[in-house]
Task: structure prediction
Amino acid sequence: MRLHSKVAGPARKEFPVENQDKLTAQTAVSPASAPTVGLPRTIHLVPMDHLNGFDVRPGFYEINGATAIPGGVNFTVHSHGATSIELLLFRRGEDEPYAVLPFPERYRIGNVYSMIVFKLNIEDFEYAYRVDGPYEPDKGRIFDKSKYLLDPYAKAVTGQSEWGSSSPRGQHYKARVVKDDFDWGDLESPLIPMEDLVIYELHVRGFTKDGSSGVKHPGTFAGLMEKLPYLKELGINAIELMPIFEFDEMQDYREEGGQKLYNYWGYSTVSFFAPNTSYTASLEFNREGTELKNLILACHQLGMEVYLDVVFNHTAEGNERGPFFSFKGFDNNIYYLLTPDGKYYNFSGCGNTLNCNHPIVHQMIMNCLRYWVTTYRVDGFRFDLASILGRNEDGSPMNKPPLLQAMAFDPILGDVKLIAEAWDAGGLYQVGSFPSWNRWAEWNGRYRDDMRRYLKGDQGFAQAAALRIIGSRDMYDPNGRKDASVNFITCHDGFTLWDLFSYNEKHNERNGWDNTDGASDNNSWNCGAEGETGDYGINALRRRMCRNAFALLMCSRGIPMFLAGDEFSNTQFGNNNAYCQDNITSWLDWTLLEKNRGMFEFFRYMIRFRKEHRVLRANVSDGCWGLPDVGFYGVNGHCGGFGEHDRYVGVLFTGGERGVGPQAVYVASNAWWEELYVHLPELPASANWTLVVDTWEETIPAPRSVSGGFTIRPRSVMVFVGR
Result:
């Protein structure tokens, strides 16, 4: 055991003004870009230590990372098992340090090393660390002083700003100090109620990278910002960005059949606190994140929220054969879940698993989320493979995971949306049972699966579809798990909506794994021909199937989410796992917007219809006109069952609102290949039914009154409003 004095460095002493020329002034004020830790606001004049030509003194131990302060830079880093740590300073773009500054032993308190280096201009250097300690692989300790280590709290990572070139590929990552002086003005966050959200999932690069996007800065945050008026016109009020934390697109880079395959999606984090600099239109040396902040500000000005798809389940360091650039070198046995013999548990499917409920990792994740909320004004997070966040240090699921509970009750995160992908690659599936505290929503994978099977006409799925449409009350008690279900039929992982009705099988041959990668249970249907076809009837059926899916999504209680490009029938040519395809396979083809303008108009109409009828979004009362809040109907018009036609679903929503009055919406869906005659639910004599949606038609029909009953054509959806 090493013993240390209670005071790290010389005691503070105030000096008269006339001695200022002999001393360096340290302004002990919490920097704007760092958390407030109760630092004094007076100026103290203290004698400096001299270390390899630099003036240094003990730093601010509670501010992690590297932070600019008046007169210098504060460096704080921690390791439980290290015996020594060195700070390495590099000139921009150079691979060898021009200065090596060992942290003096007395600059250490507990396991935290902190040092202020004076007269450093943040634009003149990049930095990394070297950490020494025991090498005991069977115990998970693999310290290696020869490795340059990236600061786990780095706010910007070097060598990543140009996509596809000059990548360190896991070797010699370095960090920069970021100056945060962004002016957010007096604009408040939108704070949109969960029930009112329409979430649009997109990949920042792929959204505008193709020349058909017509933007000035394709593939960037700036390019996305140019498209915000389009999203506003569509009716979107929340965008969910696939990973924008710094990742290395060259990880696992390879060439197959003459094409370049990248880590395109980015689900392999290099740095949790740094934005991906290859997504910027211009270099932002020491002001990294400015373009992303401008994007978020522009979204807020348009009343749109921004959510980040975050990957805290693993890192880009992989397993024993993976790179060694950060967490492995600081405390491998703390940051990762390890087997008793020091190997890596792989509940993520990517080689390693973060030890999320260890106090050190727990603290880092909480600090990270608070940072993105306070510094970037992010409105929500979708957690990739979130079930891992509830695993114990031995890998077993926890009954009351402290990390998930901390997120649910954290004051800074109080208004933030928390959305879980409630499963992991280790077989843990928690859809409907994810630890919630009435704060967590979930990607409802059962909604996706049941609705896909119902839509393509599988027998026996009418009741399951009806339950999903009314908000999956069999899974989420509306009293205890309100607004918990994020409903989706498509997302980045799987077929696009057009491909869902164009392919029976996945076609991932271009990924280089002989079509063995990606899910095989897609519950898709090609409508009679595999892939592209010139058959008018098949293409008309595919368009109708897409309209059916989106109409039911917009008429389902819960939070709707869909994949970018579905609104104009974007295709990935049958690839359901396009994680490595940095090309037109994954990029949106904006020429399809004009080709399929009718689909776009239908999506826009259904989003607006949902917003105009709150009874679709929430239980606004216990019903009206003597009818329940929700009811199931068969073709005979009676409530409670589906009768002889188990491919027909009728769902009635009713309620009354102040200023609106009693209202009913009846959603009729025929997944059968023959037409049916259906009796409408009975309304009082003072009310009548109006047909407002019929997906059999290529265009939105003019509203018309209907009484008694109606004929619903094969494989179509009709929506009626009762007033």
Summary: DSSP finds 13 helices and 33 strands in the chain. Residues 1-43 have pLDDT under 50 and may be disordered. The radius of gyration is 28 Å.
